[in-house]
Structure formats: C-alpha cells, structure tokens
Design a protein that fits this description.
CATH topology of the largest domain: Rossmann fold
Number of strands: 12
Helix content: 40-55%
Radius of gyration: 20 Å
CATH superfamily of the largest domain: Glycogen Phosphorylase B
Distance between the termini: 8 Å
Largest sheet: 7 strands, parallel
Number of domains: 2
CATH class of the largest domain: Alpha Beta
Length: 347
C-alpha cells in the first residue's frame, strides 16, 4: 500500500516525531511504500527515504500547500499528524488546541489569558481545527486517549464511530533494560548523592515547570535537584532515565505523554496530572501518582518528599514497568495498521 505521512516540522526531542519514525519503520518492514510530506525533516538514520518538502511559514500555509498536492489521487492512504482538511486519516496526537487554550487560561493570570486569545497563531490553530474536525473534511480520526476522543466528539459533533482510540507505544525493552545509571549521571553532570527529579520535555508553560520548581523547593529534601531535560539526544534517554530517581510531569495539557511511558518502562516512580492522557491507564499509588491539577504544589511536594525513600522507589519499580510493558510500539503499530487498512482506498 502507498501511504503518505504528513508532519510539518521535525524536532529531535519531539514525541510525535519519534512516534512517526517508529511507525514508518514498521510500515516499511511490512512491505508498505511510505512517503513523508513536510517543511523539513532532519531525522538521522530515518527509515523514511521518500521525503517531499513544501515551502510554507505557518500551519495554515502548510495546510494549503499540502492540499494543493492532491495526495489522495497519488496514495491509497493520506495519514496526517497535522490539522489539514481532506485527509483519509488524522492522528490527533497533539490533542485539541482549543482545549489547551482553555486549560492554559485556567492556570494563567487575566493578562495572560487575554494575550493568549489575541495571538494570531492560536486563533489560526483553532480555526484549522474547526474546519478539519467537521465530519465532511476528515475520513477518520485516531485519538491517543479516550479523553481526546470524547472531546472531539463533543466539541465538533464528529461521529464517535469514526474515532479510533490507539494508545501510544514505545520500544519497551530499550527503556526497561537499555539504561546505564553511571553513564547517564556522568553525561548530565549529576553527582552520585543527588536525588534527581527528572522533568522531560520542551515547553516550560505547558509542562508545568514553574509548579515543579516550587514543589521541589519546598519538599525539604536537602539533596533534591529538579533536572529539566529538554534537548538530550534520543539515544541517551534510556541512560538519563536510569540516572534519575523519579519522574515529574505536572503538565497542564498532554494528550498522552510518551516521556511518561518511557519513564514507567525505566521503572521510575511517576508523578503527573489528570491532564496527561497516560493518567487514564494509571492506578494512583500503585504504578504512579496522579495529581488533580498542575498547580497542586503541596501534594506534589509531599510526594517528592516521600519518594526520597529508596525502598519506596524500589517497591514501585515492578508495577511501573508492568504497566509500561502493555504499551509497546508493536502493539501501537498493529492497532494503527488495522485502522489504516479499514479506511484505505482501493488502488
């Protein structure tokens, strides 16, 4: 089957890009022809060899350029990770921008709320969503959490039977068994006696970094250090997780955080929020901890203090890895391919 994948830009630390690389590799291994349409792709050693570059400077311009290519006449399946009308299948891995704006406003001062809604980019993204999520504009949708699926159906009156929930997947063994603690500590400059609380991901506001900083500052653990990892090469991530003691992501909005799955696979105790799609598969207190809000700083700080106990961290390791082992890239690819086969057009 000839498949066109669409992603506007490449970020070496982006979860969506890692997802796309892994999916493309498995599609190629299974005999499918895969082409990427993008503004630019810098993935080293990528399995995507057919890269088609279009010129644009913003999301709306990229959408228009892609629509001009008439991809549906050239491929049996047009599978987009961007908000573009006319695709056979859209993966809502970035969630819903309008919901992110609402949650952002909830945690922002009044001046910040006004500024967010006045930004042209935000209005453009919301307009793209409204057009793309109309039932006539997009054939089917993959959501990476039930929360996102429900929001799409509710906000845009999109038919629920055309929304397929496929949870993200990771190369479990790579993170469960591939990390070297000493190597990770050396690379990051962390000393052996530091209690490392790792926050992985770009986007300070969205990831709730300021709340994490406040929680660590008040936790009362003398050697506690919040380590923000936002630019490490993907090849080093198993070592970085192995070098950390706990994983903290007080996110304001994350449809389904790959970094959270990776940390669970590495056996780290995870503290995150109900705004992270991974929380819907977690059991609070058993395989991780789910906060009711990103700004629940006292509760966050208390958990950080409790998890300074190495014995407690060790007890949480097996349940965390057991949970993560259910969400492999192989499972994700199998479920994604079933959706692709169901919606693909005949050659």
């Amino acid at each position: 089957m000839k498949i066109a994948l669409i992603r506007r830009r490449y970020s070496p630390t982006g979860g969506a890009e890692r997802y796309l690389e892994r999916l493309a590799a498995h599609l190629v291994m299974r005999g499918h022809e895969v082409a990427l349409w993008t503004e630019g792709w810098e993935g080293q050693g990528s399995s995507i060899k057919d890269v088609n570059v279009v010129q644009s400077s913003d999301p709306e311009g990229f959408a228009k350029q892609i629509q001009r290519q008439d991809l549906r006449s050239r491929y049996q399946l047009v599978f987009s990770l961007e908000r573009i009308e006319g695709c056979d299948l859209y993966r809502a891995g970035d969630g819903i921008h309008a919901e992110w704006m609402q949650l952002r406003a909830r945690y922002s001062p009044i001046r910040g709320r006004i500024a967010n809604w006045l930004k042209l980019k935000n209005n453009t993204m919301c307009a793209l969503e409204r057009r793309m999520f109309s039932p006539e504009a997009t054939g089917s949708i993959i959501a990476n959490s039930h929360h996102v699926a429900g929001e799409i159906a509710k906000r845009f009156a999109y038919p629920a039977d055309r929304i397929h929930v496929v949870y993200n997947g990771i190369p479990y063994d790579h993170f469960a068994n591939g990390g070297d603690r000493a190597r990770g500590r050396k690379h990051m400059g962390w000393s052996d006696n530091e209690y490392i609380i790792a926050l992985v991901g770009k986007g300070r506001e969205r990831k709730g970094t300021s709340y994490a900083e406040r929680a660590v500052a008040r936790c009362g653990v003398k050697n506690a250090r919040l380590a923000i990892v936002d630019s490490a090469p993907a090849s080093l991530m198993p070592h970085i997780y192995a070098a950390a003691d706990i994983f903290l992501l007080p996110t304001l909005y994350d449809p389904f955080s790959n970094a959270t799955l990776e940390a669970l696979a590495a056996g780290l105790p995870v503290i995150t929020t109900c705004h992270n799609g991974v929380s819907e598969v977690m059991s609070h207190g058993r395989d991780g901890f789910v906060l009711p809000a990103a700004d629940a700083v006292p509760a966050m700080s208390d958990l950080i203090r409790r998890l300074a106990d190495a014995d407690l961290r060790a007890a949480l390791r097996a349940p965390a890895q057991q949970l993560a082992s259910r969400f492999t890239i192989e499972r994700n690819v199998d479920e994604t391919l079933r959706v692709c086969m169901a919606v693909a057009r005949s050659p």
